[in-house]
């Protein structure tokens, strides 16, 4: 197994292995998991694996999760098909970590490229540990105890009819997470707000709100500033897909953005998301 670091902040390409073998080899899988904690997102080329091998490998990290809107492959529960064609509308071309709208956001995911456009369709990942570390100390102090709500209603539900949107929101009500999460394995602090985040839940205290002018402006301005940290190039890695390429990422420490710059070409991806743990 060879590891080539791609950027100083995040990302490594791994060669010399087959993920089908890693699904069956505990030692090889342990090496991949250790590399994931170090580099946060791993990339593999030329992985001729079956859907069953894809699911088996991802399942070594933990149980797989379904998606209430995208659904799963009927023969392989937990394998979500993300097939895009000439529709420029997408939920992936915004900075996000998967499932922030869940009580337990995803631990990570294994994404395989089935078909990609001749040009465009890259995905960008960002190191949200570094995004937190590089914040001004004054901002770190102000957000240390903040918590925020996240939801699916205003994102996946936005294009639904009112009744369907209400049903989706009832099945997946808004959840609360810390603005700064502690990574459960590394102990690192992670900036944990993104496009699924709607508002802080405990900002409006006497320490932060002097008069009515502060009531919404201070909170919304700070939230947008924090969400915007994901767009800083020095924290990112950009990956050019080819058919057979695979990416594995630690969803607890990263965000990603799928560039929707390829219509009318097609892009077909399959993702196995791994169930996460509480954020506290």
Summed up, what is this model?
The protein is α+β, with helices and mostly antiparallel strands. Helix content is 24%, strand content 25%. The protein has seven helices and 15 strands.
Features:
alpha+beta; 3-stranded antiparallel sheet; 280 residues; 7-stranded mixed sheet; 7 helices
Fraction of residues in helix = 10-25%
Number of helical segments with 4 or more residues:
7
> Which series of helices and strands comes N to C?
EEHHEHEEEHHEHEEEEHEEEE
Q: Can you count the beta strands?
A: 15
Strand proportion, as a percent range, falls in: 25-35%
Strand order of the largest sheet: 1-2-3-13-5-15-4
Q: What distance separates the N and C termini?
A: 36 Å
Shape: globular
Structural class: alpha+beta
Average pLDDT over all residues: 93
What does this structure look like?
The protein is α+β, with helices and mostly antiparallel strands and 280 residues long. It is built from 7 helices and 15 strands. It has a 7-stranded mixed β-sheet with strand order 1-2-3-13-5-15-4, with helices on one face.
Topology of this structure?
Layout: E1 2-5, E2 12-15, H1 19-22, H2 26-39, E3 41-44, H3 51-59, E4 79-84, E5 108-115, E6 123-127, H4 128-133, H5 137-143, E7 147-150, H6 162-171, E8 175-178, E9 180-182, E10 189-191, E11 197-200, H7 212-227, E12 236-239, E13 246-250, E14 254-258, E15 267-274
Parallel strand pairs: 2-3
Antiparallel strand pairs: 1-2, 3-13, 4-15, 5-13, 5-15, 6-12, 6-14, 7-8, 7-11, 9-10
């Amino acid at each position: 197994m060879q590891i080539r670091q791609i950027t100083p902040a995040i990302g490594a390409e791994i060669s010399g292995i087959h993920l089908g073998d890693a699904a069956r080899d505990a030692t090889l899988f342990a090496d991949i998991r250790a590399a994931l904690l170090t580099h946060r997102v791993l990339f593999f080329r030329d992985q001729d694996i079956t859907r069953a091998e894809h699911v088996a490998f991802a399942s070594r990290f933990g149980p797989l999760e379904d998606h209430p809107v995208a659904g799963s492959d009927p023969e392989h529960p937990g394998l979500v098909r993300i097939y895009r064609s000439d529709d420029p509308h997408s939920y992936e071309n915004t900075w996000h970590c998967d499932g922030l709208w869940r009580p337990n956001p995803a631990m990570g995911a294994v994404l395989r490229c089935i078909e990609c456009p001749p040009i465009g369709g890259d995905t960008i990942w960002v190191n949200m540990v570094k995004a937190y570390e590089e914040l001004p100390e004054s901002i770190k102090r102000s957000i240390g105890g903040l918590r925020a709500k996240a939801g699916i209603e205003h994102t996946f539900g936005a294009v639904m009819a009112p009744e369907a949107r209400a049903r989706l929101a009832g099945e997946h009500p808004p959840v609360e997470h810390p603005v700064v999460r502690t990574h459960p394995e590394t102990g690192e602090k992670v900036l944990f707000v993104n496009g699924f985040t709607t508002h802080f839940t405990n900002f409006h205290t006497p320490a932060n709100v002097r008069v009515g002018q502060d009531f919404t402006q201070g909170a919304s301005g700070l939230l947008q500033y924090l969400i915007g940290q994901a767009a800083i190039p020095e924290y990112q890695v950009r990956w050019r897909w080819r058919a057979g390429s695979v990416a594995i990422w630690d969803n607890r420490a990263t965000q990603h953005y799928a560039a929707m710059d390829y219509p009318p070409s097609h892009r077909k991806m399959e993702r196995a998301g791994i169930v996460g743990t509480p954020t506290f």
